Amino acid sequence: MMHALHKCLLFHLLTCLGQNALGSEIIHGKKVPDKLMLYMASVQISKGHTCGGFLVSEDFVVTAAHCDEDGPMSVVLGTHNLKKVNDAMRYDVKRCKYPSYVNITSGDDIMLLKLSRKAQLNDKVQTIRLPRTNDKIKEKQKCRVAGWGCNKRGGKVVDVLQVAEVPIVKLEMCKKQWKKTKFDLPANVTCAGGPNKGFCQGDSGGPLVCSGTAVGIVSFQNSVEYEHQRLPNVYTDLSKYLHWIKGILKKKNC
Length: 254
Ligand SMILES: *[C@@H]1O[C@H](CO)[C@@H](O)[C@H](O)[C@H]1NC(C)=O
Ligand SMILES: *[C@@H]1O[C@H](CO)[C@@H](O)[C@H](O)[C@H]1NC(C)=O
Prior knowledge:
Layout lengths: L1 H10 L1 H8 L9 E2 L8 E6 L2 E8 L4 E4 L9 E5 L12 E8 L13 E5 L26 E6 L14 E8 L1 H9 L9 E4 L14 E4 L2 E8 L12 E5 L4 H10 L3
Antiparallel strand pairs: 1-9, 2-3, 2-5, 3-4, 4-7, 5-6, 6-7, 8-9, 8-11, 9-10, 10-13, 11-12, 12-13
Helix pairs in contact: 1-2
Bound molecules: 2-acetamido-2-deoxy-beta-D-glucopyranose (2 copies).
């Protein structure tokens, strides 16, 4: 993700400054080893990376609702390198957006994508566990966020999947910090990272992973600096949407 940021800064200084605030040391990412995070999906519009996502069953990828852009959508599974994509890795999808989603600032930023054919689980493609109902994330627990970096608005996407460790931020504290910018956080979110660690724009939809479980979906971050700080990044709290997710997984439809 650090690379993504460098590219952003080099090629799209103005757009990226807004999204990434402080400069090249913000997002301490490193390359994901080949055998890890095999649940990661690249959500694509017209075969270009637009968001992250993660495989939760043979039939469904989870991503953010705000990734629902116009154009033919597909997901790519089974590679960390977006330069190495073949047709067998690409799946057409049906979009199942959370019914009450309005916009990113109002919350409910979650969407399931039904794959047009079952994903073959193997040494390149695996699912990730969802939390159990009422699972509580511990404050300061070390978690990780992964992604391919800046999106097309922010500039270049990185080719190779990057991961960064991010600490969970207590919700009350997070709310307070965001409140200083006159913004009330939506319901059913989790906060992590910031001021020095976090995600880049094209990481939207990717998972927040704690102890091998997907607990959140990358939703948004502050777009302008506040007192020279980045606020904690905001994730959709998956534990609040399990009922909806399980219903769709069971029906295999929405
Ligand atoms: C999002 O939706 C809410 C509720 O409809 C509205 O008040 C708000 O202005 C919208 N925000 C944006 C950025 O469109
Ligand atoms: C989100 O939070 C609101 C307010 O706390 C709650 O009423 C609602 O049921 C939650 N949504 C989900 C899907 O859990």
